[in-house]
Amino acid sequence: MVGPVKLQGDKLGELNRTNESCRIYSEACLELCRDLDIKVIDLWTTIQKRDDWLTECFTDGIHFSSEGSKIVVKEIMKILREAEWQPSLHWASLPAEFGEDSPFDPVSPDGNTTVNVSEGSFRRNMQWE
Fold first, then answer.
1. Residue 5: enclosing H or E segment and its boundaries?
2. Do 87 and 116 fall into the same domain?
3. Are residues 86 and 123 in the same domain?
4. pLDDT tens for each residue of 32-84
5. Looking at the 3D structure of the chain, how many domains does it have?
6. Parent domain of 124
7. Distance separating alpha carbons of residues 57 and 62, to the nearest angstrom
8. What is the pLDDT of residues 73-117, one digit of tens each?
9. Per the omega criterion (within 30 degrees of 0), is the bond before 87 cis?
């Protein structure tokens, strides 16, 4: 949020959630993750790079819009691609849960064999790569 937010009926008082307080909180979280040697995503800085961040990245100053969600996914995917742990958590590297052939697999166009959807090429063309 840009300024303080009053809650309904002032029952809980006033929240002092400002962009500056979010920056301070973000920096503290980043420092803690660095101290613990944990991979971290700096969403605050990434989103602030946009001049229109408040109107385009959030629906109400707190919740991400579609555009804000795309930024989050892009940053998460970047970390997953760069991660050096095994097994890799990048979706293209994960094994299929049910990779074996099954009688419930769809029948191929030849009518004689089944198609294992786990091995299909549709996964390779998804937008999240």
1. strand 5-6
2. no
3. no
4. 999 999 889 999 999 999 999 989 999 987 899 999 999 999 999 888 888 77
5. 2
6. 102-129
7. 9
8. 999 988 888 877 776 666 666 666 656 666 677 777 888 777 766
9. yes
